[in-house]
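In the previous lecture we treated proteins in isolation. Real proteins rarely work alone, and many bind small molecules. This record shows how such a complex is specified: first the sequence, then the SMILES for 1,3-bisphosphoglyceric acid.
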Amino acid sequence: MTIRTLDDLLAEGVSGRRVLVRADLNVPLDKQTGQIADHNSASAPRHGTPDGMRIADDGRIRAVLPTLDALVRAGAKVVVCSHLGRPKGAPDPQYSLRPVAGRLGELLGAPVHFATDTVGDSARSTVEALADGQVALLENLRFNKGETSKDDAERAAFADQLAGFGEAYVDDAFGAVHRRHASVYDVPARLPHVAGRLVLREVEVLGRLAGEPERPYVVVLGGSKVSDKLAVIEALLPKVDRLLIGGGMCFTFLKAQGHEVGTSLLEEEMVETCRNLLERSEGKIMLPVDVVAADAFAPDAAHDTVAADAIPAKRLGLDIGPETVAGFAAALADAKTVFWNGPMGVFEMPAFANGTRGVAEAITKTDAFTVVGGGDSAAAVRALGLDESSFGHISTGGGASLEYLEGKTLPGIAALED
Ligand SMILES: Nc1ncnc2c1ncn2[C@@H]1O[C@H](COP(=O)(O)OP(=O)(O)O)[C@@H](O)[C@H]1O
Ligand SMILES: O=C(OP(=O)(O)O)[C@H](O)COP(=O)(O)O
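The predicted 3D structure, ligand included, written as tokens:
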């Protein structure tokens, strides 16, 4: 099995050819409403649009620049596609990629032509009008049911339309390679396909962790995509020495231990799974002993640190508490390999950012090989003003890197193999 690379495609010559690039431009956005405090503007300048959405962190846009720059310099007509957020298969203005087109143009130093639909009239005319070395961005892939459909025929019909925009396909969307979606899985079957620079680099570095990581190997999990990640824990447990669970992930486990979690993020139908995992974990799983519980999901909500087994009924846990941070730091201290995915709390609100900051700092203090994965986790590192160079690798994919570490064959990687 081999995977051809962007360099192979460039060697064939792409001048004047239309190249379809699947990128993961799923950047964190916030609204200019003051709802989320602008605590990170010093380290991460925001890029806004008149319609009110701002890019809180442009790391995922920057990550795809090496691939796009190379194609532009080689004179390709570059058609970029991506998802943003989780719209439900129909246009939804809050998930428009328009602000991303603006920022991508600034970073590339040339305007990016934005199509207001994904495969409709606007996309067709935008792609048609591209000159050599120009870049177009299509509107959010997930505005179309076919992108994420479980029905093969529905995905295929959408993939046929998308593939019509390229003579070759480059996958540089590492953050989405674990998704069996039309643009990731079905389009490469229809076009000559290669891996972009970002995908290659991610696979190379994460390969170090997927093989024989130096021990102790500690994995830290948080964030809010609870059901996605619970599925991964089972496979990871035998490979790790310790698994520290915070963020929105921890409440389903606390519930499984018999504690009430108030109105915290909870996957009721996964409680039994968590109970089984705890029973079989041989003591490897560490959960919070205290949490910061608030009376609302808001930056100015009243909040207190409470014991993890005493969360008041009307409150929700928005961060791990200081005792937990100290315990997690101790569990990390002798690690030789660390993988961290998912913020420990709602770090976007300063009142609930201390857990994420504390655990991130503890990770940087180890002499381990450290990898941070995930759009929001990487954004948190930058937003909290942490030194990016003190981590071994900052991956653009959270779910993708976790599934890669599991040793799974990922649909988006398999689709590139010849
Ligand atoms: N206790 C919590 N309750 C609700 N949301 C949380 C909690 N802790 C963290 N989060 C949220 O999780 C989000 C990131 O989750 P996720 O997408 O899983 O991470 P990543 O993008 O790094 O993979 C952040 O926006 C953060 O606000
Ligand atoms: O943000 C992403 O993943 P991550 O939060 O696991 O890093 C990717 O863009 C994939 O998005 P999805 O989890 O909605 O498929």
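Summary for your notes: The two ends are 6 Å apart (CA to CA). The first helix runs from residue 6 to 12.
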